[in-house]
Amino acid sequence: MLNSKENIQLLISHLSRTENIFTKRKNQLITMDGFTEKNILIFHQGIIAGCRPGDDRLLVNFTAPRIFGLNQFIDTTLLYFRACTDISYEFLALSEAEKIINEKNLWETVSINHMLTIANMLKYINNMSGVSSYALVIHCLYQLQAEPDIIRLRRTAADYVVDKSGLSRSTVMKMLAQFKSEGKVVLSKGWM
């Protein structure tokens, strides 16, 4: 059985068309709205931030390869994407993707992609919703530690926690100062 990354790569190899691949530079945005028909979004390479449009909250940083938009019941306008590094990506009409998936019998691979997406959503909800500010900051710090160097070394701990949690900057700064004085975290000029 293939692991999740191999499954996604297998699906992408069947859906992708080299002539449809675009690139974006760091900090540029990608949205899935503005099309006349539903599309899927395939990320080929790079690190991408998934953000909520309503409040620009950072929901997740992920490394390509990834596919979004295969689930017809999830509104694709719930996220916009920001390139954390230079990235390559492509759009494909959902109807065309479904045709290829049917012809190549790739529904198992699609279901694994859905399971990965749902698992990530549940992990986010479990760790970020309905928890105390203390637990939220701790979780964000653990997430920051797990981020790739390109993310971790370019953002202060406070900036990351504020973007990820939605807590006020003053609350986050007080908690970080408390954690530092208690020896729970080592910060140097805001960097972990």
UniProtKB/TrEMBL annotation:
Which InterPro entries does the protein's record reference? HTH_46
Species of origin? Lelliottia aquatilis
Q: What is this protein called?
A: IprA winged helix-turn-helix domain-containing protein
Outline the extent of the IprA winged helix-turn-helix domain: 133-190
Q: Which Pfam families would you find in this protein's record?
A: HTH_46
